[in-house]
């Protein structure tokens, strides 16, 4: 299920759920498609189920869908590239096959066909389900056991050249207690970093990705996520660069079974407000979604 929500940052911070959207799989007997993971690109959502045997590209704004049969089990990401001299965007799906670093496949939306990708990845992708797509690339956290001094860094996949590239994080560290990737306004990358020895959490944002090949980081917000929140590992977040507010969600593992998904809003004055708590079976995604009339070819 996908929920459109409105974040209120005035007065008492709150989240209002506006619309619930669901998918119906034409080949399934269930009345809805059980969405397990989601990736986002230019107003399109790429969703897969928990069995990883069915994926769909979906435009929630127009209702258009394209159902796809995977060739192999793996993690998926959706990205764009310019298909012609007029700058029209087309789309591809990258499949990282069953966690094998050098086995990737590409699905061409235009031709509705899979092919094996001839590429070598010289590092280890971390948290592969948490890639973020922006301006023709998808980004993941990564590490390299042969260059441990680099610590954690980012790896991007370019959907035009079909090659991987590295990008340094603003802070060098081998281990982070908490980390996450997000996109700001369809123009910038953002990272949330919390070092292992502190509850202080930093939010960094890049310059506009398409304006220069040199990516620069700026720290826009520092908050203290108290130890009692027990935030560790991955979180999902959105940041308002101007108003200096952070919205983040995580799984409360102390809640027992069933597990609870919790969402908080934190401002520059470090006041933490819990705005949502509900039972979940998987980590929810948070996207700054901009409706689009993009056609799925």
UniProtKB/TrEMBL annotation:
The lineage of its organism: Eukaryota, Viridiplantae, Streptophyta, Embryophyta, Tracheophyta. It holds the Pfam family FBA_1. This is F-box associated beta-propeller type 1 domain-containing protein. Coiled coil: none annotated. It comes from Arabidopsis lyrata subsp. lyrata. InterPro entries: F-box-assoc_dom_typ1, F-box-assoc_interact_dom, Gal_Oxase/kelch_b-propeller, SCF_F-box_component. Residues 2-296 form the F-box associated beta-propeller type domain. It comes from the Eukaryota.
């Amino acid at each position: 299920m996908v929920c459109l929500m409105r974040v209120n940052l005035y007065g008492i911070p709150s989240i209002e759920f506006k619309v619930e959207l669901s998918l119906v799989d034409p080949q399934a007997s269930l009345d809805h498609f059980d969405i397990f993971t989601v990736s986002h690109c230019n107003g399109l959502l790429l969703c897969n189920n928990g069995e990883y045997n069915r994926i769909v590209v979906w435009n929630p704004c127009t209702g258009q869908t394209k159902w796809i049969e995977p060739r192999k089990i793996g993690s998926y990401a959706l990205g764009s590239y310019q298909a012609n001299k007029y700058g029209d965007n087309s789309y591809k799906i990258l499949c990282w096959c069953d966690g094998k670093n050098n086995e990737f496949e590409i699905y061409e939306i235009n031709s509705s066909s899979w092919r094996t990708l001839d590429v070598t990845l010289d590092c280890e992708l971390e948290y592969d389900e948490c890639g973020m797509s922006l301006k023709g690339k998808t980004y993941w956290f990564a590490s390299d056991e042969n260059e441990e001094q680099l610590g954690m860094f980012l790896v991007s996949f370019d959907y035009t050249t079909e090659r991987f590239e590295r990008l340094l994080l603003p802070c060098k560290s081998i281990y982070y207690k908490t980390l996450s990737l997000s996109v700001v306004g369809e123009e910038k990358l953002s990272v949330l970093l919390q070092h292992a020895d502190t509850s202080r959490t930093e939010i960094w944002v890049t310059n506009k990705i398409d304006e220069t090949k040199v990516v620069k980081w700026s720290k826009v917000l520092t908050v203290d996520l108290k130890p009692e929140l027990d935030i560790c590992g991955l979180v999902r977040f959105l940041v308002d660069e101007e108003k200096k507010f952070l919205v983040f969600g995580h799984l409360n593992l102390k809640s027992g079974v069933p597990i609870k998904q919790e969402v908080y809003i934190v401002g520059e004055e470090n006041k933490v407000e819990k705005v949502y708590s509900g039972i979940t079976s998987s980590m929810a995604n948070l996207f700054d979604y901009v409706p689009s009339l993009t056609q799925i070819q």
